[in-house]
Amino acid sequence: MQALPSTKTSHTFEKFTTKNGARISRIPLEAFPGFWTYAYLVIADDHRVLIDTGSGFGDCNEHLLEGFDRVRTDEGPSAAIVNLTQFWRRSNVFF
Predict the structure, then answer these.
(1) Contact 64, 27 (CB under 8 A)
(2) The Cα angle at residue 27 between residues 35 and 14, in degrees rounded to 5
(3) Band of pLDDT at residue 95, cut at 50, 70 and 90
(4) Which of 10, 48, 71, 89 is a Cys-bridge partner for 79, taking CB atoms 3.0 to 4.6 Å apart?
């Protein structure tokens, strides 16, 4: 499995906080060989929402799991996949 990129590349894990306190984690995923996209985990109050644009191809799922591990480091166990309250997936879309 290819490791998630470090902060020295353009495809990085990053965290944001909105002015209302919602926390957003941007998780890089290699959707297809050489094509990177992001999944977003939004934590607001009791809501845990995953917005996933991955493909399930190659290491994409492993990148998502590694991203959740990073989020749990700061957020604790409430950020686990099993605690999601909503899941939005936008994949397998053909142009």
Answers:
(1) yes
(2) 115
(3) very low
(4) 71
19-31: pLDDT as tens digits: 999 999 999 999 8
Q: Is 84 part of any domain?
A: yes
For residues 29 and 60, the answer to whether their CB atoms sit within 8 Å is yes
Which burial class, exposed, middle or buried, applies to 68 when counting CB atoms under 10 A from its CB (0-12, 13-18, 19+)?
Answer: buried
Q: Cα separation of 22 and 17, whole Å?
A: 6
Strand order in the sheet with 35-44: 14-17, 23-32, 35-44, 47-52, 86-89
Mode of pairing for the β-strands spanning 86-89 and 47-52: parallel
**Cα separation of the two ends of the chain:** 28
Cβ 20 vs Cβ 8: under 8 Å: no
pTM of the predicted protein model = 0.78
- Assess if residue 58 is contained within a domain: yes
